[in-house]
Structure to design on (127 residues):
């Protein structure tokens, strides 16, 4: 497995999060609202609301992680350490999603921290 493969897998995880969040939104808001103009701002609650926030966080994480991986590849800085950091990121994000969706606060925060530290490590390893 390479850092680019991990980036692709994380992209698929973000898409899965989007699908889960949209399904929850459909259940709470109805098809009419989702297909409409959405001029009035409605919010979702419970797991659907947490999935919406997890999706927003996942997109932010992607914006930070993807350039780090691309930097590693372009500068030919791949190493065991960069692979380990990318793997740690992916595992952390795999833990983050269900822990956020089900409200496991301590685990969610730990997973977020591991993910951001792994991302910073990738940038530093590319220098």
């Amino acid at each position: 497995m390479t850092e680019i493969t991990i980036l692709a897998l994380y992209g698929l995880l973000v898409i899965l999060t989007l699908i889960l969040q949209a399904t929850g939104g459909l259940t709470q808001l109805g098809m009419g609202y989702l297909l409409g103009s959405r001029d009035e701002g409605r919010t979702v609650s419970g797991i659907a609301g947490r999935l919406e926030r997890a999706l927003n966080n996942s997109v932010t994480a992607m914006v930070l992680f993807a350039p780090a991986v691309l930097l590693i590849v372009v500068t030919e800085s791949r190493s065991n350490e960069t692979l380990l950091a990318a793997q740690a990121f992916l595992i952390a994000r795999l833990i983050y999603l269900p822990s956020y969706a089900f409200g496991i606060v301590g685990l969610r925060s730990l997973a977020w921290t591991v993910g951001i530290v792994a991302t910073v490590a990738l940038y530093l390893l590319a220098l």
Summary: The chain has a mean pLDDT of 92. Residues 3-126 form a domain with the Four Helix Bundle (Hemerythrin (Met), subunit A) fold (CATH 1.20.120.550). Residues 46-74 form the longest helix (29 residues). The two ends are 22 Å apart (CA to CA).
